[in-house]
């Protein structure tokens, strides 16, 4: 049999992982990336002497990365040094409460008790209640495809028993009463584009994923991890085409037959799309059935993000700040509704402040700091005057940082860069400029999410944030594992029929 050729669209972590897996399986893989460098959401921005992580800043479940290197007899730790982050996060509210959270309950529990003594027992009860969610949702089902309704029906009784129909906020609220502590243990769905008031309780498992496998940061930034995966793919014989956008997925006789990339027709035996799921079906595939188009346009999508990158001419960071800092605004539930439902930029906000030099001093030029500030904002299904609103929002963000953490912060800024919903829409090609594709609601999870294998185009497969199991580095790496399993099975079937 001739060596089969597979095209992978997009070099985010999902696309890179799928390309490595399939190349290691003996296929000839061509990976097309529209940007001039690999990484997708995890790309690096270079501004003057500074290099900024473009997206993800947290590595959890690192064994999923280790698997990719083990496929070729190599070791992740020989290519990338993952540094432990401790604390995982430092969390603040508007009333002066603080929680330094890591994977050790003995460290977290006294802080919980000091804030609200009755919640100490509640926190332990929450950990016990979330354990089955981790076991079922991540360990047992995370790498399993949901291609048929029967796949969902098979696990529905277990999900009902685990109360997966509840929201994360309601699930945690059963055990933890203090408003600040509820925020501390329900914010995780925001890291994968989820509304904590709507995201299925199954995503409470994220807390335990971090607790069991830790939170890590690659020395040299996320670019070192992206570069290591790209190099691994190249060492296997894979071909990476940078600055080469895919304009269309070719379909012949109901089967994916290749792509049109930068105006050139590239034939293939199968196509794996790491492009945004909605974009794949609404823009890249002309044969998408009208019912699928209607479903996708009516689905619930994640929020977007406004991120400001600052290069600072100082070697000092205030003691109050850790590597990962989450600052909650005076409102929580109503602010979330402003972002996801009312789709407005409110006067108040919550933010994530990333200070990588706390873990990796090489994250900035010598004697300087490179950090970013992220604020969740509505996606482009809104009528916001974006430039004006984002300028005002940045001023409020800077004022808060100076008032609460870093006096004189503005005077240290020597370079700055911003991304916003238009970056996600235009540069990354996400539908509505979302940061994470579809929301992880129960009715948009597992079988209800765009499948890893297209149900109406043979030979077309999906990986990444918009397909099963969802966003976040563990989710997209698992999607690649699922896709590999299905592609290999389908290609073996094609050979048998031949």
Structure notes:
The structure is a single chain. 53% of the residues are buried. The radius of gyration is 22 Å and the shape is globular. The longest helix has 25 residues. Helices cover 37% and strands 19% of the residues. The mean pLDDT is 96. It has three domains: 174 residues, FAD/NAD(P)-binding domain, CATH 3.50.50; 126 residues, no CATH class; 123 residues, 2-Layer Sandwich (Guanine Nucleotide Dissociation Inhibitor, domain 2), CATH 3.30.519. By secondary structure, the chain is an alpha/beta fold. The strands form five sheets. The chain has a seven-stranded mixed β-sheet with strand order 7-6-15-16-17-14-18. The chain has 17 helices and 19 strands.
What does this entry show, briefly?
With 498 residues, this protein is α/β, with parallel strands linked by helices. The chain has helices at residues 13-24, 63-70, 76-79, 105-115, 119-140, 149-161, 168-173, 179-184, 205-213, 222-235, 277-284, 290-298, 333-342, 386-404, 409-412, 421-426, 473-497, and strands spanning 5-9, 28-32, 44-47, 50-53, 82-84, 89-92, 98-101, 216-218, 239-241, 246-252, 255-261, 264-267, 270-273, 304-312, 324-327, 351-354, 369-377, 413-419, 460-462. α1 (13-24) packs parallel to α10, α4 (105-115) packs across α5 (119-140) and α5 (119-140) packs across α9 (205-213).
Blueprint (SSEs and pairs):
Blueprint: E1 5-9, H1 13-24, E2 28-32, E3 44-47, E4 50-53, H2 63-70, H3 76-79, E5 82-84, E6 89-92, E7 98-101, H4 105-115, H5 119-140, H6 149-161, H7 168-173, H8 179-184, H9 205-213, E8 216-218, H10 222-235, E9 239-241, E10 246-252, E11 255-261, E12 264-267, E13 270-273, H11 277-284, H12 290-298, E14 304-312, E15 324-327, H13 333-342, E16 351-354, E17 369-377, H14 386-404, H15 409-412, E18 413-419, H16 421-426, E19 460-462, H17 473-497
Helix pairs in contact: 1-10, 1-17, 4-5, 5-9
